[in-house]
Design goal:
It contains 5 helices and 9 strands. It has about 170 residues and is α+β, with helices and mostly antiparallel strands. Strands 1, 2, 3, 4, 5, 6, 7, 8 and 9 form a 9-stranded antiparallel beta sheet that branches. The longest helix is centred in the first third of the chain and has 15 residues, at about 10-25. The protein is globular and about 45 Å long. The protein starts with 8 loop residues before the first helix and ends with a strand.
Length: about 170
């Protein structure tokens, strides 16, 4: 009876050896470059954990979806944030936001024309003119960016801040 070449122990060892070799070739890079962050981005999700319990409105865990539904527009996903070299952030005011108070848009997105950003490794810090700073861990994908941070916030406006995990998802703007 003829044995298949693939049943030989040497071929099996070679196959597993090559698999381990090529899986080891993956470049590990925990750094995110400022050039990768720079450019125009749209927020696609602003998730908070734990979710807000708004009673009859239910639990809200994605503020972008909630505010777009509340306003009946796509305003919050249409806003374009431009992260400029030098650490400044610009926001636009798209047509879908024209009927919404600009201060409300800035408050809900967390960015205004005085916001600044700085990157150190995977840590991105956003600061406002009032001196407030938020720190996030950044990860990049193909045309996507995700920030994850923790903050004490009184989203429920009950006078008691809660510690939230905040995850902001972006996609590169066209």
């Amino acid at each position: 009876m003829k044995r298949s070449v693939l049943n030989q122990p040497g071929w099996i060892l070679l196959f597993f050896g090559l698999t381990l070799f090529f899986s080891g070739c993956k470049k590990e890079n925990d750094e995110v470059s400022p050039a990768a962050v720079e450019g125009r981005w749209n927020i696609t999700a602003y998730r908070i954990n734990p979710a807000l319990d708004l009673g009859p409105l239910g639990k809200i865990d994605n503020l972008v979806t909630f505010f777009n539904g509340l306003t009946g527009t796509t305003c919050f996903t249409d806003v374009t944030l431009t992260f400029k070299s030098g650490g400044t952030i610009e926001t636009d005011n798209p047509q879908s936001c024209k009927d919404i108070n600009e201060d409300a848009v800035e408050e809900q997105t967390g960015f205004d024309e005085t916001s600044k950003w700085a990157l150190d490794g995977t840590k991105l810090t956003v600061s406002s003119s009032s001196g407030e700073k938020e720190e996030y861990t950044v990860s990049m994908g193909s045309g996507t960016m995700q920030w994850v941070g923790r903050r004490d916030e009184d989203f429920e406006q009950d006078g008691t801040p809660t510690n939230y995990t905040v995850t902001i998802d972006f996609r590169r703007a066209k």
